[in-house]
Amino acid sequence: MLRLGIPVIGVTDIPRAVVFWTEALNLVATEDWASDTWRTLIHPDGSGRALGLMHSTSPAEPRPRIHLDLFVDTAEEQQAEVRRLIGLGAQTVDWELYPSDPDFVVLADPDGNVFCVVDLSHAPSGGGEPTL
Predict the structure, then answer these.
(1) Are the C-beta atoms of 60 and 110 separated by less than 8 Å?
(2) Tell me, what's the pLDDT at 34?
(3) Is the sign of the CA dihedral 56, 61, 67, 71 positive or negative?
(4) What is the dihedral of CA 4, 10, 15, 18, to 10 degrees?
(5) Residues paired with 116 in a beta bridge
(6) Residues 57-85: what's their mean pLDDT?
(7) Is the pLDDT of residue 123 over 90?
């Protein structure tokens, strides 16, 4: 049976990406499938794989069709997390596609891969986790 695995981010510098993403998302690098071109990041409680980092020589896309949305519960938490992520090496992105009242902030990891920090209290659904 086919099932969804984990999101994978292409990076040019595996060790740098491991440091950024483990700190950003409170994950742990594992030796599971580890190589010079791959690292698997897992949840610290051992509940499973969370993110794959794969060496890539292609440049990051300025407007990727697939990206990560990282959730926070309040505007204050969003501001704090954006500051923390920038302190870890993320970069602000001059995103010309922001709506007039955005619920998200666009950042890029140290490799230039864009991702969003979404304030769920301001999300179009009116707050809380998205429903399926």
Answers:
(1) no
(2) 95
(3) positive
(4) -40
(5) 69, 106
(6) 96
(7) no
**DSSP 3-state of 72:** strand
- Split at pLDDT 50, 70, 90, the class of 23 is very high
For the chain, what is the radius of gyration of the CA atoms?
Answer: 15
Q: Which tokens hold the place of 110?
A: 């140290």
pTM summary value: 0.89
Instruction: Name the DSSP letter for residue 131.
Output: P
Q: What is the Cα–Cα distance from 77 to 56, expressed in whole angstroms?
A: 32
Report the C-alpha gap between 87 and 51 in whole angstroms: 21
Query: Can you tell me the distance from the alpha carbon of 56 to that of 10, in angstroms, rounded to the nearest whole number?
Result: 5
Kindly give, in sequence order, each residue whose CB lies less than 8 Å from that of residue 16, ignoring residues fewer than 6 positions away. 89, 110, 111
Amino acid at residue number 7: P
C-alpha separations of 3 from 6, 77, 112, 122 in Å: 10, 33, 29, 32
- Contact between 70 and 118 under an 8 Å Cβ cutoff? The reply is yes
If you search the block for the tokens 């791959």, which residue do you land on? 38
Residue with structure tokens 């959730």? 71
**Structure-token pair, residue 84:** 């923390």
